[in-house]
Model the fold of this input.
Amino acid sequence: MKPLALTMGDPAGIGGELTLRAWQALHDNGPCFLALDDPARLAALSPHVPIAEVTSPDAAPSVFPTALPVLPIKLAATPQPGHPDRANARAVIASIERAASLALRRAASGLVTNPINKAALYDAGFSYPGHTEFLAALTGAHGRQIMMLASPTLRVVPVTVHASLRNAIATLTPDAIVAAASTTEAALRRDFGVAHPRLAIAGLNPHAGEQGALGDEETAIIAPAVAALRKVGIDVSGPWPPDTMFTAKARTRYDAAICMYHDQALIPLKTLDMDHGVNVTLGLPIVRTSPDHGTAYDIAGKGIADPSSLIAAIQLAATLSQRRATATRNTA
Done:
C-alpha cells in the first residue's frame, strides 16, 4: 500500500513534535507515512530522530523503518513555539495542497492533517472555516463534506459544524440531516466495514422537545428527516433525548450518532476518549483523518504533547484506505 501523506500543521504548534513521536511509535510495524514538512525544523525539534529527505512518496516505504521520510516544504521563517508567524502561512497551505494532490493521484493512500491556526493563514489567502472545507474544495467535493469524530467507544457526526449555536439552529433542515445521515451510512459500509449500519438521530431540545412543550424542531425538522431516511431503507432511530443517548448502554444500540450541532457531538466524544478521538472527513474522494485537538500553543516546544490522537488518526487512515481499496476492487 502507498504511504499516507502527513501535513506539517502550524509550525508553532505541537504538530512537528507529534509527527516525530508518531514515527518513533510506528516505524517498526507501520503504518508507513510521509511527512510534508521542513526537514530542518523537524531535525531541530528532535536531533535523535533520523530524517530522510525524499523526492517521491515511492521512496517512503523503504526509508520508513530507519528514518522519517520527509518531502520538503521549506518554511520562510524559523518557527517559535507558541507564536504563529504569518510568514510561514504559505508553506502550511502548500503542505495541505500537495498532500491532497498526492492522495487524489493515488501516490499516497490517504491524508492525515496536523492542526492548523486559521487566523495565521488568512493573509496568505486562506478563506475557509477549516481543514474540512478547504479539502472539499481541493478535491471537488465542496458541499458534500461531512465531519465525523470517531473513537473506539463512539462515532458522532454533527449536522451543523463551525457555526454559532444561534446560526446552527437557524440553518438546521431536514435535507441537511438526511444528507449527513446518508453520507455517514455509506461510509460506515464502505470504509468502516459495518455491514448493517444503525444510526441514532439526536434531538435538539431538552428531552427531545417533550412532544413540543420544549420546542418544535423535533416534530418540524428532525422527525421528517427520520421518516425520509427510513423510506430509503436506512436503519435510523430517533430523535433521542441528547442527555441519555450517550450512556454505555445506549451506545450499544447504534453505530454512529447524528447530532444537530458541534458541541452536542464533540463533548461526549472528547469526554469518553479524548486521547483516541479522530476527526474523519466523509464525502471526499480521498481518505482524510486528523487528531481531535488543536495546535496546543501552551505546551508547544516543551516535549510533553501526547501523540496518541495523531497515532490513532494514522492507524485509522490506513485502515480506511485499505477497506476503500478493497471495496473498489470488489465493485470493479
User: Anything to note?
Assistant: The two ends are 18 Å apart (CA to CA). Residues 132 and 283 are 10 Å apart (CA to CA). The chain has a mean pLDDT of 93. The first helix runs from residue 15 to 26.
